Amino acid sequence: MIRIVQWGCGAMGCGMMALTLKKRNLQLVGAIDSRMAIAGRDVGERLESGRKIGVEIRSDAEQVLKETRPDVVLLATSSFTRDVFEPLSLIAEHGADAITIAEEMAAPRVKAPELARRLDELALARGMTILGTGINPGFVLDSLILMLTGVCQEITAIEAARVNDLSPYGQTVMRTQGIGLAPEEFRRGVADGSVDGHIGFAESIAMLSERLNLEIDDVVEEKAPIITSVARETACIKVAPGMVAGCNHTAKGLRKGQPVITLNHPQQILPQLENQHTGDFINISGRPELHLRIEPEIPGGIGTVAIAVNMIPAVLAAAPGLKMMSDMPLPYCLPNLKAI
Amino acid sequence: MIRIVQWGCGAMGCGMMALTLKKRNLQLVGAIDSRMAIAGRDVGERLESGRKIGVEIRSDAEQVLKETRPDVVLLATSSFTRDVFEPLSLIAEHGADAITIAEEMAAPRVKAPELARRLDELALARGMTILGTGINPGFVLDSLILMLTGVCQEITAIEAARVNDLSPYGQTVMRTQGIGLAPEEFRRGVADGSVDGHIGFAESIAMLSERLNLEIDDVVEEKAPIITSVARETACIKVAPGMVAGCNHTAKGLRKGQPVITLNHPQQILPQLENQHTGDFINISGRPELHLRIEPEIPGGIGTVAIAVNMIPAVLAAAPGLKMMSDMPLPYCLPNLKAI
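ok -> structure tokens follow
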């Protein structure tokens, strides 16, 4: 049995705990969350499973790690390397491997090279492995592209898009994507940083460029408002015609000024109301040309939870150090307790 | 520089040599082919490149291995484990890793468990790695499916198809697929083994079942004639209406009598004449459901050559033993000498 601690028991963390409980050879031995409203409850209650499982969500991280001696900790607390640096250090010091879904950790040298260097050093010193993963960055716009290039003799350009529907998400996502704003407010939000768009383009481009030797020397990003011409309404927001229903975020990896990698990720609510079909799309120019479509798109939440849990045995088996998905073996779905 | 010997200088072997010559960090140091018409010539002549490269194709395999001391040998001589067993043994004894595109070697324990055991033993004893790969088996209907399952929380069934066009191929392929036969002749050919269909279904299913713990206990295959209703003609064959234009080959991996994996590979000439579109298609049932399409299909020859060469550094870095693609890291396209 592989001993697992979940650190961060929000929506993603709960998904990971629920999945861990369904998998053969995985044993959830602890759960950490610093939020008052969450700590102190049994995991089963938090998962609304109708039964306690005998694992309490606790806020004293260090004590939990010490008492439960996990093999692997799943960390789902933040998108940013600066925020997960201390938890990851603590995990490594307690002799556990770590898998985090912090978007920046998909390629942490991009935004936080010094923290990445220190994490790598610590992981090597302790013989531990740290991996950043997720659906995107971590899979759709990087690993899956790499996998496809495996059957290519040469690559001249990569264009890929992930078109998704944000309808299931709550207020935080609406705010960071600028949904519900007037177009002018959206543009101000982009300028002042309150409209984030997608976090992960620079990381995906770095992973591709490094692995494929594409010699990308600059990354430019653009965030444009998706202005709706029809009323769009979800459980948490109403958007009138003329207002912003999403953020059309594009990043280009340039080499000597020419785009070599173009990644597009328009995120909006209810794209189907304007006949937009969701999906993941990869187009590789080279020999051969390849055109891949996954329609509808791989669901973000389900996919992120899955890949984080599915990478557990590979992370345990991996050489020590700070790893990216491009360093790892082929992912696969771990067997569930109940056979199909 | 990684020292490469090509063993088998037919169409695929020539593709691999040509690609090796284009890649950074790879050096073609030898070439082996036992055929009188091929041995004795310079590789450059064989590739019709208009210049000699100073590497002669030779038939004395053992001597070539001894003199050139390759790091990796690319073996492209046969589809069957029984035929590549001796070459692979010789390669391992000479201290080189091996990559073979023999279809059965994608999962050699399926058809030749005893030879697979001996190859694994020898590879372990010599500290060498042996990998079977190719576009299919090796990628489309197995590794690529595994990769996709990485973002799945559970899998209940897998259905996949590779629909391709055999028009570029020659007499041998036409004969083994039964193209040009009358339907009755095709059925007799299936019965007497002269119509092969696709080699690799059992291997792809074994790789998936083992990795995903699907507990497949039986594999059933069906080869049906694709009877054309229009005249179809390629450079090497004419097929009249009512005759066989291809082999529609399907394999099912069963668990307790129920299909869990269904793989279909209709191979024919000029499918577009009857409005059939070529492509690679993967449908995964489970959580989530996934529907992937690559249209047109990944070209078989180009893709097989690419994946064999692209796996070279991963095979060099791998632990010793007999490996399948499911044991390997994420493939990717190696950089060419000339930047894009």
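The longest helix of chain B spans residues 113-126.
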